[in-house]
Amino acid sequence: MVWGCNSLIEKSAPLEGNFYIQDGWLAFSSSKYEEADKHFNTAIETNDSGSVFHFLSLVGLGWTNIYKAQAIEEKTSNGLVKIAGESFDAALNIVFNLNIEVITLELYEDYFNGITDMYAGLALQRSYFAKQKSANENAWETTNESLSDTVRILYEESIDFSIQLESDYIFQHDVKLTYNDILVLRTENYLILGNIEEAILSFNQIDFDQLGFEVDEACKQEFEDDKLEDFIECLCIVSHNGFCPFGDLND
């Protein structure tokens, strides 16, 4: 058998960036976050700065660090969540500066899926980071009026990024994460900021049948401002998978 020169590509030669990105997401989906981190970083190193592949690599790296932080229940505000934000911010900067005309047809779907994943990641990262940086525990029975300007801005940014998502959003690399989760997060953020009316409007959009756990019928009603205590307790229940760890907040 005669082998052509193209068949003798050295195994040690770098692969195209999309291969590393695909391998990164495969590792991510298997909860192998250190391996995913390695693949996404390699993709960043092997692609042109500001390219679509560079953008997609940064989005993958941002999500990887968010999940790594969740896995270890990170508390410090100078760790993985902060690094995730830096990756997402760099990805967002590419979106603002990338000439869409240079995107090839076969990359369109990946690029626009990457944008929605980026906004979802930014929404989660900003809220997570705000909680880490906050000097006060956020009590469910009260709004927190002592938030620093930095923390308040992070919550506001989380809300703004979440609004960029469509109601049918599903995170393709962890299908348990859906638009419903984003709505719950947005509702929490509004409440923490003291925007009660917006919090209630956001809560009323939640699809309770898609939560994956039972919710009392009383929580599925259209809430009004005069039922704030009931609303806060229902939000606590929904945010904690059907059981509020703080007990009956109306007592």
Task: Report the strand count.
Answer: 0
Helix count equals 9
**What is the CATH topology classification name of the largest domain?**
Serine Threonine Protein Phosphatase 5, Tetratricopeptide repeat
* Helix percentage: 55-70%
Taken together, the total number of domains comes to 2
Question: Which secondary-structure class do the elements indicate?
Answer: mainly alpha
- What value does the average pLDDT take? 87
CATH C-level class of the largest domain:
Mainly Alpha
Please outline the major beta sheet. none
Strand content: under 5%
The outline comes out as elongated
Helix and strand sequence: HHHHHHHHH
Low-confidence stretches: 1-13
Query: What is the correct CATH architecture of the largest domain?
Result: Alpha Horseshoe
Could you characterize the architecture of this molecule?
The protein has 251 residues and is mostly helical. The chain has two domains: 16-133, Alpha Horseshoe (Serine Threonine Protein Phosphatase 5, Tetratricopeptide repeat), CATH 1.25.40; 137-164 and 173-251, no CATH class. It is built from nine helices and no strands. The protein has helices at residues 17-29, 33-46, 52-71, 80-97, 108-133, 149-162, 179-193, 196-203, 228-239. The longest helix is centred in the middle third of the chain and has 26 residues, at 108-133. The protein is elongated, with a radius of gyration of 21 Å.
